Amino acid sequence: MAAAAAESPGPAAAGPGGPRGTAEADADGMGLTDLPGELLELILCCDVLGAADIGRVSCTCRRLREACQPRGKVWRERFRLRWPSLLKYYSNTDGVSWLEEYKARHNAGLEAQRIVASFSKRFFSEHVPCDGFSDIETLGCPSHFFEDELMCILNMEGRKGLTWKYYAKKILYFLRQQNILKNLKEYLQRPTDRQSFLEGAVLIDQYCNPLSDICLKSVQAQVDDITDKVRKVLRTKNPRHPSLTSKAGEVLIPEVELQRQVLDAMNCVLYEQLKYKGNELDYYNSLNSYIHQVLIRRTGIPISLSVLYLTIARQLGVKLEPVNFPSHFLLRWCQGKEGSTDIFDYTYIDAFGKGKQLTVKECEYLIGHHVTEEFYGVVTSKEVLQRMVGNLLNLGKRESTDQSYQLLRDSLDLYLAMYPDNVQHLMLQARLYFHLGIWPEKVLDILQHIQALDPSQHGAVGYLVQHTLEHIERRKEEVGPEVKHRSDEKHKEVCFSIGLIMKHKRYGYNCVIYGWDPACMMGHEWIRNMNVHSLPHGPHQPFYNVLVEDGSCRYAAQENLEYNSEPREIPHPDIGRYFSEFTGIHYLANTELEIRYPEDLELTRATVQKIYSSGKE
Questions:
Q1: What percent of the chain stands above pLDDT 90?
Q2: DSSP structure class, residue 274
Q3: Are 384 and 302 in contact (CB under 8 A)?
Q4: CA 535 – CA 596 distance, rounded (Å)
Q5: What is the DSSP letter of 301?
Q6: Domain Hemimethylated DNA-binding: where (predicted)?
Q7: Of the candidates 22, 24, 20, 26, the residue with the CA atom closest to the CA atom of residue 8
Q8: Rounded CA gap, 532 and 553, in Å?
Q9: How many CB atoms lie within 10 A of CB 266?
Q10: 3-state secondary structure 497-559
Q11: What are phi and psi of 50, to 5 degrees?
Q12: How many Å separate Cα 364 from the centre of its chain?
């Protein structure tokens, strides 16, 4: 079909049908151009044809050129078949030149591939700097086209393209977070009555999980589904309840007894039918704070469950308000005059405790001590978000396995987006970047901002400025990468090579080697703390940089490592930084790592062939 469609026009033929191209059949048959328009379009929309085929077909004659017009069905179908996820961006397709959209998306893909390919070479030896994304911020193509190509790279099947996937993920992470921050700032600038608690929770969720498919529309749809279930229960109790009308939620229900019926129905659906509950067993899991995970797992912490509970109640005409109660977030329900300042005019609701309704005294029993009246007051949506982000900040500080401190970094970004002049959190951010050895120029900018806000911080600021400047100078003095040849005499004791899957003899973890030294290169303090001298060969033996399956990076002595009898993929976030492919038995170093260890690839292949002679490779 593609070959026939690509043929050039032949000599004109006289007759009622007018000129015909070479798509014409013999005298007894029918040519392609003689077919009815709908059938012709159906053929041209066939998925075996490519864009180049359509382009060639449209050059053969006027009839086919009209059938393949830029704004027509053929190019729209070609666009849909190639990039189906992009159609959601076209709410009104009238007047869209699908040919031009196809070209723009194709060019955006080429640009994305060029940038991803450049990242490994530019940033292999360091963390991607804060200005490393500058060329992405000035893209000459629609951002959703660029993002779609990045997603195509991430979704490539198989175990190849690991380095491309690694940097595509970093770029996509950055792009989406920048867009979400912009949406958050726009949200915070709205009047408070237009700041939905649910939308705020979704924005926090999106920022901390930018690669997940989370959107307000889908979360709202799930909440609406729960609300409909509540209405069904409510209908069996009171068929004339005002919450059952089409305008429910637009007008608040004034009668307390009718409000109570709504809350009883909510408790029945949420806690009895759907089995929502507070996550007491795994309270400090960050998933409890993400609203889309709360809906999936049906569990959470007091504040996330309260946002869900409050949203459903308001959609049914019951006004509940958030209360920033210490140690346990609550909601309050007015039993007296609306807007009352008397804390005893309210019943307090514990969404974490299955919607239990509490008195003031019972609230104090809940946390085990007396609190002043100010803690029973209502808080704004911004203060609710502040507490949600504060919870994530505390979890980020507790993390021990994530050596990149991603959750802490993300939650600091969110907090400072809301409170950009908070000296305490600015200092924490500067110290964190300094500790990680990343973005020294940004550290200096943060410190300068802190000094302007609070001159009394000059001692801590001065210390960090001095050491950050030293770090920048050291980086300038660095020469090219050190190349390690196994043929050098000093490397003769190195037994293992880059890309081999190993097992730690003592701790049992699985890992992959991404670097080695002929002897321990760590400082005396590290050697003493790790008790290296207790090893039979001490520090005077080869040591290996390894990526461990738990996400950590370690420095292991040669005598503690052995070949893994059952090699498998190592699920480490940095695997693509060093390796381009997993063969099923070992990893292949990417170009940048191979430059540093030029003789390891052949040794790894020889080792694998010798050890795993069962023919797996």
A1: 68
A2: S
A3: no
A4: 28
A5: -
A6: 493-590
A7: 22
A8: 17
A9: 24
A10: CCCCEEEECCCCCEEEEEEEECCCCCCHHHHHHCCHHHCCCCCCCCEEEEEECCCCEEEEEHH
A11: -100, 175
A12: 39
The confidence band for 247, taking pLDDT boundaries of 50, 70 and 90, is low
- Which pair of tokens denotes residue 76? 């729209």
Q: Which among 170, 169, 195, 173 has a CA at the least distance from the CA of 183?
A: 195
Tokens encoding 310: 């409050």
Report the distance separating Cα 607 and Cα 586, nearest Å.
10
Alpha-carbon 368 to chain mean position: 39
Q: Return the structure tokens found at 135.
A: 């060329």
Identify the residue whose tokens are 């007491």: 280
Q: Express each pLDDT in 64-118 by its tens digit.
A: 888 888 998 999 999 999 999 999 888 887 789 999 999 999 999 999 998 898 8
Beta strands in 231-278 (DSSP E): 277-278
Quickly state the pLDDT bin for 281 (edges 50, 70, 90): very high
Beta-sheet pairing, 561-563 with 553-557: unpaired
**The token pair that represents 440 in the structure block:** 């020294």
Q: Sheet harboring 346-350: ordered strands across? A: 320-323, 330-334, 346-350, 356-358
- Neighbouring-strand partners of residue 263: none
Cα–Cα separations (whole angstroms), residue 118 to 111, 123, 124: 11, 9, 10
3-state class (DSSP) for residue 347: strand
545-603 pLDDT, tens digit per residue, is 999 999 889 999 999 999 998 999 999 999 999 999 999 999 999 999 999 999 999 99
pLDDT tens-digit map of 498-536: 999 999 999 999 999 999 999 999 999 999 999 999 999
Contacts 24+ apart (CB under 8 A), 505-510: 505/559, 505/560, 505/561, 505/562, 506/560, 509/548, 509/549, 509/550, 510/548, 510/549, 510/564, 510/568, 510/570
Residues 283 and 267: beta-carbon distance below 8 Å: no
Q: In Å, what is the CA distance from 303 to each residue of 202, 271, 291?
A: 13, 16, 10
406: tokens are 């991603």
- Return the axis-axis angle of helices 406-418 and 197-208, rounded to nearest 10°: 140
Closest CA to 303 of 291, 295, 292, 312: 291
Which residues, other chains included, contact 241 with Cβ-Cβ below 8 Å and sequence gap of 6+? 234, 235, 258, 261, 262
Euclidean distance between CA atoms 294 and 306, whole angstroms: 11
Q: What is the DSSP letter of 7?
A: P
With a CB cutoff of 8 Å and minimum separation 6, the contacts of 59 are: 65
Residue 554 bridge partners (DSSP)? 546
| Residue 468: predicted pLDDT | 92
Residue 33 has pLDDT above 80, yes or no: no
Greatest CA separation for the chain: 100
Is residue 345 within 8 Å of residue 337, measured between CB atoms?
A: yes
Indicate the residue type of 584.
G
**Burial letters for 206-230: b for 16+ Cβ neighbours within 10 Å, e otherwise?**
bbbbbeeebebeebbeebeebbebb
